[in-house]
């Protein structure tokens, strides 16, 4: 797998060893937590190098998951992978329906009000429970004294249009907020 032309997406994290035969706890970041096991191979970055991991077995355990990967056969080997992020090739992500976007697609887009005021660019997104929120950063404090805004990602009421090719999001938002 070529690292130069590939973008990797973090989908989870390996937790503490489970037992003595190399099983590891798995913390999934995917919408459907079991969805992490649909991706293969897993990629982990350690000491500046990417390594592939093949999941040979997994199961639910309490409120989470445990997994056995082919290359790990005992507790000591599993311990060396504790807290390592699990990534996958972005090409493995499923196509989304028209009008839906992955968070990574929105990062870096310009955010413009429906009145034409440039609020800045999407720096990050966060999940609040009730809705996702765009973290929009301006290059410097704007005329309203704002360097960062938190804008709820509410389609139709706040988010008016996402122009994917133009890398622009139109919002109904008061620049004074």
Would you write up a description of this structure?
The chain has 177 residues and is mostly beta strands. The protein contains two helices and 13 strands. The chain has two domains: 85 residues, Beta Barrel (Elongation Factor Tu (Ef-tu), domain 3), CATH 2.40.30; 69 residues, PRC-barrel domain (SH3 type barrels), CATH 2.30.30. A six-stranded mixed β-sheet has the order 11-10-9-8-13-12, with no helix packed on it. It has a five-stranded antiparallel β-sheet with strand order 5-6-2-1-7. It starts with 7 loop residues before the first strand and ends in a 6-residue tail after the last strand. The relative contact order is 0.15. The N terminus is likely disordered.
Structural class, by secondary structure, is mainly beta
Q: Work out the strand percent.
A: 35-45%
Runs with pLDDT <50, length 5+?
Answer: 1-5
Proper CATH architecture of the largest domain: Beta Barrel
CATH topology of the largest domain: Elongation Factor Tu (Ef-tu), domain 3
Which features characterize this protein?
177 residues, Elongation Factor Tu (Ef-tu), domain 3, SH3 type barrels, 2 domains, 5-stranded antiparallel beta sheet, 2 helices, disordered N terminus
Indicate the topology:
Blueprint (H helix, E strand, L loop, with lengths): L7 E11 L4 E6 L13 E5 L2 E5 L1 E7 L2 E6 L5 H5 L5 E5 L13 H4 L3 E4 L4 E10 L4 E6 L10 E5 L6 E5 L4 E4 L6
Parallel strand pairs: 8-13
Antiparallel strand pairs: 1-2, 1-7, 2-6, 3-4, 5-6, 8-9, 9-10, 10-11, 12-13
What is the structure about, briefly put?
By secondary structure, the chain is mainly beta. Helix content is 5%, strand content 45%.
